[in-house]
Amino acid sequence: MRFLLFTAFLTLALLPGGCGDGTDRRTLADPSVPTLSGAPPVVIAHRGASGLYPEHTLAAYEAAIDMGADFIEPDLVMTRDGVLVARHERYLSTSTDVADREEFAGRKTVKPVGDGEREDWFVEDFTLSELKSLRARQTRPGRPSEHDGIHTIPTLTEILGLVAITNQTGQTVGVYPELKSPSYFKVQGLAPKTALVEALEAAELDALGVPVFIQSFEPWVLRELDAETDWPLVQLLPVTTGEVLTPKAIAGYADGIGPWKQVLMGFEGGPEAYIALAHANELVVHPYTFRDDAVGPGFDTIQAELRAYYNLGVDGVFTDFPDTALAVRDGELNDP
What we know:
By secondary structure, the chain is an alpha/beta fold. About 35% of the residues lie in helices and about 15% in strands.
């Protein structure tokens, strides 16, 4: 039921004029659109407009909102003093100037990351005040670097404030947070899941009509959230626990699937069959990640890649370049 209510709202929001402008919105679905709801696929700004600005900065989120993204996506990790901040990884050297800061030289250490270990500076060893002294930088080579060294690491509260202000202006934009490494943080005595729920409730997003998805690679945290909240949940694939989860199993606790593109394309019955199976279990499908500067195998242009996935019936896409994904979705950008 929570997904059906959400899709009804989102369909309204995606129609011209959004919600609340007095226009008749009684036609909620277009049978020609192969998404689960019949609404156009949503465009999720992956780490903000991270193709142009350092990822997970307010500048990147603001740029994505200005482009018209349907959602902004903050990856959430936790500081030593229990504050959720936006970083894609627990380690900081690739996305900040921490390696240049002499005062933090002694914080460099070796810790587990994924299936191995890494020598780096880690978010859980810094207080929020210390993290705020760092400056973000572009993480991928070949992308604009003129914004490096300017922007700070935002907290979840700051991001939700930006989303709330945007929705108060009449523009609908949702928030799509990911709980990163919740098992690891739990072992450290931190509680990112609880902090996320408390922050979302405190922001009173429901009263503003703000769409929300919560995502994670770890099934256990989504199962707990399913019992505790009404926000739509998305299981990212492949899961970090090594479980092999069918759409039917995922539908027992979540409302959507966020597959790596290669997982979707590599499905034994083909991507169409997987999407059909997900839709049969009332699950949306939001594959990741679409990048103008890293087109997927088998495609000559990002336009062709995006169009192919849209035609498959995906319900949304994660992208570093939301302006491109929006233009292709809306038929405004053809192959060069």
